[in-house]
Amino acid sequence: MNENCSLLVCSCDKYSTAWYPYFELIKKYWPEHPQKIYLNTETKQYRCEGLDIQTINSDKHCTWSERLYHCLTQIDTKYVVFSLEDFFLLGYVDQKAIDQCMQWMEEDGNIAVCRLCTSDLDKLKKPWKDSNFRIAEADIQYRLDTQAALWNRETLLSFLDKSESPWEFEEKGSKRVANSEKTFLWLYHENDFDLDKMIFPYRINQIYGYGIAWSRWLWNDKKWFRKNGITGVNMRQLGTLSEKSVKRRFRILYNPHPTGTGKLVKPFYRILDRAEKVGQNIRIYGFRNGLRISSLGMKK
pTM of this prediction? Predict the structure, then answer.
């Protein structure tokens, strides 16, 4: 089954510093990973000893969905494991479970995706066979999303609108497939925080401190990299958010109804956040391009 599947890592040049730790963790925690690996980014190339990575570049002015579409058309496997570059593995991938998912998809061509992580537990009511998967029906808010998943490549292509950003893909795309006759399978566990029960074990929620959030590293990344012998990662370019700063963001910046001091501070906090992102873009892209990219981001 491995010959029918490839690993697709969607990224961008801005997060190229994440590629080294991401792929080193793939080598350690997914020894039976697909032999074909594709890295989707704008202009940069990447090589990793021990992995056959094909970097697929697109015009830097393409939308996120255009780049994904362009990449998928150049992949020749029937299935792809979709991942973002900051889904840092925190344990071993369950290859047997992925093989089982591919077997289901071979037997039932109506299955669009097997999502390899779980959420929306209260809405996942309908079980799939005698398994840990359930059917994600139309009432799931983000039936299309960018979490780790095994996709039928051609079906994923058919769901794309090339004008969309990743957030639009999740929001507008989920509405677009509301009446789809395809079957969407999601991993289900009552305790969605238990890494040992995950097929592709990584942390979605920022409160755990792993991955990249709001364009910055989170506080546990560096410790995890070092624990796995991964050193020399450039953490300064993006900067790192502390646990306190993440909690503060949820309390003030992303709280739709802040009260008291939070309500007064929110406008200033938003200005500070934007200023930090402008500085970050200037460090990565240079002064002129950094300002241009920042201005485009503020218009969205």
Answer: 0.90
